[in-house]
Write a structure and sequence with these properties.
With 829 residues, this protein is α+β, with helices and mostly antiparallel strands. 50% of the residues lie in helices and 20% in strands.
Length: 829
């Protein structure tokens, strides 16, 4: 895929013409031109020289674009230079226009005084109007150069319409001025009303003003991308031979060790070698709660170190960092086109020639109907000027650019505009279980000692026995033991036995661990333990039993825990009208337990990777399918789905196969992506409706279709309407910036209740396990994301959460949300 910068485009007709010219080249497979970013993406075997030549031949300029994000500032500088040049043109044009308006409308319509030597000299007034109008036209010669260049290349554009309208007004007025010289002075005064020099100038000034406002608004659509580009630090503190050295960020290389002090930004993606701190990752993920980092944890460039000093090793630098990849992905997506934009492209391709034909027919018809040439010409010029191909061309790309920017700020990355559009139409959501709905790593959930056995004795034996095992379930028990501060006892004769069991000698006694069937062959069990093991298995957990010699010590249950926000995310999917399906390779019993907990509509268990893709294909027969996954085994299903979504912490294969990437490993961001996509799609529909409605209504009005009702538009008002049309489309897209993903605000349905009713709707939850303000903030965030919760006042000191509700919610739902986060609910009042 090659990228180019295209210059000289002013409307959708321009971008459509460039696309057609490049697509006509041999070897070009696809071409997408963005009017908003003045960029072009080309896929195929055609050389750069051939592509650039094709663009130049149709009247535009093209250069190969730099693929690196470091090229962005130069582009911003070009944009600022263009704005400054536009401001200058507008300033000087207004100066000449004000004098021109005084001579034309001020004197002829309102009888404003003029210098004595002009009052009785209509020819001098006409000549002065001509010179002032000519000055404005020379200042804004860009319209005429681009417009007539397009006409010569048989590719008329918006500049062609504007320049033809202004030139027609000027030429007609020039002939009227010549006619004045052939009559007496008193008769010549009447000819002043037939001069349209002020229209010729006013059209250019109003269009320039509209373009300036449009440029300001379009600049705001890329604010998110600019903000991301500015996040990277400019300097870094390297640690060389035990000494700290402050150097420019360009000097940082892979493998370098650098120091990050409090309130400094991390310079590269890497791993922590020394120290611990809380790191604010909101710049990349949109999450405001800091993340604790310690030795061995990974850090990302542009995130903010808040408290301690960190010593890190750089693993990905410069263009390889996550920040640079996000910037590149957003930029690439903004340069692509959504399928819905094809409608506007088809219309834009014939729009300008059609408008020119309508303008000519309008003039001829009015002349045939017996109206004077001035009236007929004014109607024709109004048609030329009021027509707005710009609104058509900007309707889709501005919304896509804003939507992509908002997504990037919240850790949601759309690879193409097409994926942004398709996600807005999704009505079936397929979720992988492991790593998507669940954490993807087993954790200890229950510790159940036998009668007369202390919990510590059970844990110590299990910890020592499992310490030497590499099994994932063993690692969960070892991690739990480390968290409890257990000390490893001496282990000898460690063996892995057939029949799902372990055996070792611990302090002179034989200790066994494994499944219920295995332990029953070693030690005498009891019915209570058997029943509890069955219940745990039915709930999707794996019970591991331990025995010392022939005595049963007890049981430890391990499970792949449901992520804290998965229950909420599934509920929000369903509230948005989506049918939710869970796909997993787990057995039916485990899958059913997880499915019941999170509330999906359908569960498919015991499914192989290839069968996941087949299931997605079957679901596509029923609707538009989004697949969310994180592993290599999800890649075929992600590719098969209408929209593939990869969890950011997933494998590179899954991320490559997906069209949407979530930086956070949280399912709630998939919900946010759907909301954002639907809002963006709605905005595109509104913009396209406005663009088509505006042109279909305003062109007949400008042509004089409603003259009998006394309603007409002169060329100056037509120019103002045209400018406002483009501005409306851009401003409407900017409203997407008002979207908020916090606290599920897009999905809440607040019930109208009296203050008395609201004050009664409170619940107090007793919570065990909150140790610090971070725990407190986490519980508060999870609770306030529930639709029914207005506010949650959480205290880790008292171990309570005072919840204010806007509608009733079950205790089970509250308990499920809190306990899924790893805390224990002791009671709800």
């Amino acid at each position: 895929m090659k990228q180019f910068i295209v210059t000289g485009m002013s409307c959708a007709a321009c971008s459509s013409r460039v696309e057609k010219a490049v697509l006509a080249l041999k070897g070009v497979e696809s071409c997408s031109v963005s009017l908003l970013t003045n960029s072009m993406r080309v896929e195929g075997a055609a050389s750069d020289e051939e592509i650039i030549r094709a663009v130049v031949e149709v009247g535009y300029g093209a250069t190969v674009a730099g693929s690196k994000s470091t090229a962005k500032p130069d582009k911003d500088s070009e944009g600022r230079a263009e704005l400054i040049e536009m401001k200058k043109r507008l300033f000087f044009s207004l100066g000449f226009l004000l004098v021109l308006m005084l001579l034309s409308m001020g004197y002829t319509m309102f009888s404003l005084p003029l210098p004595h030597f002009l009052e009785e000299n209509p020819i001098a007034i006409g000549i002065l109007q001509m010179l002032l109008s000519l000055a404005v036209m020379l200042i804004n010669q860009k319209f005429f150069i681009n417009g007539f260049k397009g006409l010569i290349h048989r590719a008329p554009n918006m500049d062609t319409l504007v320049s033809l309208g202004s030139a027609a007004s000027f030429v007609y007025s020039l002939f009227s001025l010549l006619a004045m010289t052939a009559v007496r002075t008193e008769d010549a005064m009447r000819y002043l009303h037939d001069l349209y020099f002020e229209s010729a100038a006013m059209i250019l000034v109003l269009i320039t003003l509209g373009k300036l406002l449009e440029a300001y608004s379009k600049g705001k659509t890329t604010d998110a991308l600019k903000a991301l580009s500015k996040l990277a630090p400019q300097t870094v503190t390297l640690l060389r031979d035990g000494k700290e050295e402050r150097v420019p960020i360009e000097s940082l290389n892979k493998g370098d060790v650098f120091v990050v002090r409090p309130a400094e930004q991390i310079a590269a993606d890497g791993v922590v070698l020394e120290g611990s701190s809380a790191v604010d990752e909101s710049a990349l993920t949109g999450e405001s709660i800091p993340v604790d980092k310690g030795v061995g944890d990974r850090v990302s460039a542009a995130t903010l170190n808040q408290s301690g000093v960190l010593v890190c090793k750089a693993e990905r630098v410069k263009e390889e960092t996550m920040l640079s990849q996000i910037i590149q992905m957003v930029s690439d997506a903004s340069a692509t086109k959504a399928p819905i934009a094809k409608i506007a492209d088809k219309v834009s391709g014939v729009f300008v020639p059609t408008v020119m034909a309508i303008s000519l027919v309008t003039v001829v018809l009015w002349l045939l109907l017996g109206r004077e040439i001035g009236f007929a010409l004014a109607r024709g010029i109004s048609v030329l000027v009021i027509s707005c191909p710009c609104a058509l061309g900007l309707a889709t790309p501005v919304a896509v650019m804003v939507g992509n920017g908002i997504g990037a700020k919240n850790g949601i990355l759309f690879k193409t505009a097409a994926s942004l559009e398709r996600m807005g139409k999704v009505n079936i959501v397929a979720l992988d279980k492991t790593g998507t709905i669940t954490e993807g790593a087993p954790v200890v959930t229950d510790v159940i000692p036998s009668a007369d056995i202390f919990e510590k004795e059970l844990l110590s034996a299990a910890y020592a026995l499992e310490y030497n095992s590499e099994h994932p379930l063993a690692k969960a028990i070892v991690k739990y033991g480390n968290e409890k501060g257990l000390e490893k006892e001496a282990v000898t004769d460690f063996q892995i036995l057939s029949g799902n069991g372990l055996k070792a000698n611990i302090q002179g006694a034989q200790v066994y661990g494994g499944s219920l069937a295995f332990i029953e062959s070693i030690a005498k069990g009891n019915d209570a333990i058997k029943n509890e093991a069955a219940e745990l298995a039915d709930s999707g957990k794996t019970p591991l039993l331990f025995a010392k010699e022939s005595t049963l010590l007890g049981m430890i249950a391990v499970a792949d825990a449901v992520k804290p926000d998965s229950i909420q995310a599934v509920r929000q999917f369903k509230e948005m009208g989506a049918y939710v399906v869970m796909l997993t390779g787990d057995n039916q019993r485990t899958a059913s337990a997880i499915a019941e907990k999170v509330g999906v509509d359908e569960t498919v268990s015991d499914v192989l990777p290839a069968n996941k893709a087949e299931k997605i294909a079957a679901l596509k027969q029923k609707g538009i399918v989004m697949m969310v996954g994180d592993g290599i085994n999800d890649a075929p299903a992600l590719t098969e789905a209408d929209v593939g979504v990869a969890i950011g912490a997933g494998t590179d294969v899954a991320i490559d196969a997906a069209e949407v990437v979530l930086v956070n490993s949280t399912l709630k961001d998939a919900v946010s992506a759907m909301k954002l996509s639907r809002r963006t799609l709605r905005t595109i529909h509104q913009n396209l409706f406005w663009a088509f409605f505006y042109n279909s209504i305003c062109i007949p009005v400008a042509a004089g279709a409603f003259v009998s009702l006394g309603f007409t538009l002169n060329p100056m008002l037509a120019a103002a309407a045209m400018s406002l049309s483009s501005l409306f489309v851009v401003t409407n897209a900017l409203r997407l910036n008002l979207i908020s993903f916090k606290n599920g605000s897009q999905n809440k349905q607040i019930n109208k209740k009296t203050p008395k009713e609201k004050s009664m709707m409170k619940k107090t939850v007793q919570i065990e396990g909150m140790m610090c303000p971070h725990c407190e903030a986490r519980v508060k965030k999870l609770l306030e994301e529930m639709n029914e919760v207005t506010e949650a006042d959480v205290s880790h000191k008292s171990g309570t959460a005072l919840i204010t509700l806007n509608s009733d919610v079950s205790d089970e739902a509250l308990k499920g949300i809190i306990e899924a986060a790893g805390y224990t609910v002791k009671g709800i009042q």
